[in-house]
Amino acid sequence: MEQPLVLEERSGQTRILTLNRPEIMNSFNFAMLRELGAKVESFQWDPEVRVIVLTGSGEKAFCAGADLKERVTMPPVQVKQFIFTLRRLFTFIEYMNKPVIAAVNGIALGGGTELALASDIRIASENATMGLTETRLAIIPGGGGTQRLPRLVGRGKAKELIYTGRRVSAKEALEIGLVNKVAPAGKLIDECLEMAAMICEAGPIAIEQAKYAVNYGLEVDLHSGLAIESNAYAVTIPTEDRMEGLTAFREKRKPVYKGK
What we know:
The protein has a six-stranded mixed sheet with strand order 1-2-3-5-7-10, with helices on both faces. Strands 4-6-8-9 form a four-stranded mixed sheet. With about 260 residues, the chain is of the alpha/beta class. Helix 1 (about 30-45) links the parallel strand 2 (about 15-20) and strand 3. Helix 1 (about 30-45) packs parallel to helix 3 and helix 3 runs parallel beside helix 4 (about 110-120). It is built from eleven helices and ten strands. Helix content is about 50%, strand content about 15%.
């Protein structure tokens, strides 16, 4: 029986999804893209899932990007279809209503770095290597890298990394703001689950609306962004969770949020 291309593991209200093609550094083919897409879409409206952690199988790689052996067999129209599928999946991950943490456990190149960029939070192992290396193959990042990287690290640094196609270490990635945190290699998933547990202590609707406000607010002027924030805040006012938070504060206990 063939192994699934995306493994799923449960840890409380967190789901760990592991890209599972370790023999070729977890590179994306059409089948793995579709399997990952089906998994994350199934979590969209599942109230038992609060946080998603994405990582790669084995010790060497998070994801080395597209499977170039498959790519070389594709006619141009199929390459376009692949990139469209990749870009649509990453955009879904970025804008879905659940926080996504990328546990970058090794090499993350091209689409691997773009998957991390589409995630809300990036935690890298100390041996991780990241980079948008597409220009060295005479193409450009096609999964959102030219847009998400400059928004994260600034225009000048993003242009440097994209133009040169060079790789950065976990230490440099932290210094330039590409990742939120660096963890010891053996403690990476533990660090991600610890952060996920902290997120799970907060109100589910509040997290959903906060993600919405940040994502959409960053794409508009400040005045419009403040209006987006105001509307997102208004969604939380009539919720049972808000009243539970106030009651728990008054009673000096931990709140029990139900996402209502």
